[in-house]
Amino acid sequence: MDNFAFYAPTYFAFGKDAEAQTGTLVKRFGGTKVLIHYGGGSVVRSGLLGRVKASLEAEGIDYVELGGVKPNPRSGLVYEGIDLCRREGVDFVLAVGGGSTIDSSKAIAAGVVYEGDFWDFYSGKLIEKALPVGTILTIAAAGSEGSPDSVITHENGMYKRGATGDAIRPRFSVLNPALTQTLPPYQTACGITDILAHLYERYLTNTREVEVTDRMIEALMLTMIHEGPRVIENPDNYEARANIMWAGMMAHNNSCGVGRSQDWNSHNVEHELSALYDCAHGAGLAVTMPAVFTYVMHHDVMRFAQVATRVWGCQMDFAHPEVTAKAGIEALRAFLTGLGMPRTLGELGGKEEDIPKLVDVLCNGNGRQGAISGFVTLNETDCAAIYRMML
Ligand code: NZQ
Ligand code: ZN
User: Fold this and answer.
1) How far apart are the C-alpha atoms of 26 and 77, rounded to whole Å?
2) What does DSSP say about strands 33-38 and 92-97: parallel, antiparallel, or unpaired?
3) Residue 366: its pLDDT value, please?
4) 125 with 169: CB under 8 angstroms?
5) Is 307 helix (H, G, I), strand (E, B) or coil?
6) What distance in Å separates the CA atoms of residue 164 and residue 128, rounded to the nearest whole number?
7) Is residue 218 a contact partner of residue 311, using CB atoms and an 8 Å limit?
8) Ligand 1: residues within 6 Å at CB?
9) Across residues 40-53, what is the average pLDDT?
């Protein structure tokens, strides 16, 4: 196991009606003037936004609001939010929504207290200072409610890039599984796919002897495999929603990723798809993961065979471990398509002639030098082959 430091001090309020605690929590974490940030309107329609405002008002906390975050959040609204916070003297950013809203909130929180362009953080600069952020989560997916990360797309070039820093880890996150019952099945399935991807990206490691985190990841994968179909069949299943919501947080606050090298190449390859085609991140991952895994499988066949046997119930073929490894990847693909996820680039709106552009932005855009690194380093030829496997 590698050396590590782990500091994840988010306060979680989990369960039915937990959003009623919002005002108290903002106060507890020092907020006096809040920016309420939200997306395209689901929180208005569900009545959640009204309940959140009432909770702030009950504590005498002043607020301004900024809606309109799109899935795959854009830089334009971040700049707008930074200006608004500065004008209004905001000292706390409250995200009400999914990963996109949370990531946009984190970007605003970091940008307000930074003199330069907030995009510096999305070009490699560590976020060391930010306004405090709180979240009220409405979809189990990105894990941003417990992570120190944010992903934004810059409209100038459509680069989708991540930033990180403990300063943007939410001070608190409200997780009420009932809030996810209004999700359409497709979005629920996208969330499940993203959670599985966060687990795979950590499972694919070059570090040896990491049994504790291997086993934690496997437990969370098995939970998703059990609960995923149940929630697609019955969207009102509170208990299944609850297990998925907590698994989504555990999958990405890095408690099961510490002490080991991680992959993240499926995410890198996918981010260009959601940037170019504006598809849901989870849908992009459903297409990306089987292709990337098949391409890199021979780097460590036994690791893929291990997940195939321990998680997907495949029979170990000791004479031909690559057969077992491949069966595990196919089981993952079948599980995802069974949830209603796509399997080809075409289903995401992509075409073969887009591949050179996708590869160029992926491998050379925004300061990259001809390759992406992870479980295996992938150069332009590798990435082109991977995108072709998705056709
Ligand atoms: O915008 P509204 O109207 O709220 O609708 C949203 C949106 O259309 C809808 N929705 C959310 N909760 C709902 C609901 N509809 C009905 N009922 C509810 N309860 O769902 C749609 C998707 O929302 P979005 O926030 O985009 O989903 P998600 O949480 O999957 O976030 C995706 C973004 O997170 C990034 C992705 O790249 C993508 O941009 N990621 C962020 C990470 C992080 N910060 O740590 C890690 C992830 O790997 C990921 O890359
Ligand atoms: Zn993800």
Assistant:
1) 23
2) parallel
3) 79
4) no
5) helix
6) 9
7) yes
8) 39-43, 71-72, 97-101, 103, 138-139, 141-144, 147, 149-151, 179-180, 182-183, 187, 190-191, 194, 252, 267, 281-282
9) 97
Average pLDDT (221-235) is 98
The two structure tokens encoding residue 128? 């060391």
Q: Which residues 6+ apart lie within 8 Å of 319 measured at CB?
A: none
Q: What is the DSSP letter of 124?
A: T
pLDDT-above-70 percentage for the chain = 100
User: Cα–Cα distance between 10 and 145 in angstroms, integer?
Assistant: 8
The atom number, within ligand 1, closest to the CA of 42 reads: 3
Euclidean distance between CA atoms 89 and 377, whole angstroms: 45
Look at the block and give the residue holding tokens 């992926």.
Answer: 362
Closest CA relative to residue 322, chosen from 295, 304, 307, 310: 304
Classify each residue of 320-343 as buried b or exposed e, where b means 16 or more C-beta atoms within 10 Å of its C-beta.
ebeebbbbbbebbbebbeebebbb
pTM (2 d.p.): 0.97
Structure token digits, residue 225: 């495999």
